[in-house]
Specification:
The protein has about 90 residues and is α+β, with helices and mostly antiparallel strands. It has a domain of about 55 residues. About 30% of the residues lie in helices and about 10% in strands. The chain has three helices and two strands; from the N terminus they run ααββα. Strands 1-2 form a two-stranded antiparallel sheet. The longest helix is centred in the first third of the chain and has 10 residues. Bound molecules: zinc ion. The site of zinc ion has 7 residues, from β2.
Amino acid sequence: MSQSAAPPETALFNALWDRQSGLCALCGQPIPRHRFDVAHATLWKKHRPTFDHIRARARGGADKPANLQLAHAQCNKRKGAGDLER
Ligand SMILES: [Zn+2]
């Protein structure tokens, strides 16, 4: 694999992954970790893990692990559109 749209395999990613046991912070369903965990690239685009800001950056949320969680790309997008209060 030369390129991937997934978050890099960083210490931050791994820490969040462990904290959430590989589950989406928004819908509670398992997140596929690698492209080949899902059957189709289209599914991967929707379900791939993304970093989600618990408090949106637009609302002053920090780029720190305590303010970040992992979520499906699709869930992250949906939340962003709805701009949920937390
Ligand atoms: Zn989700």
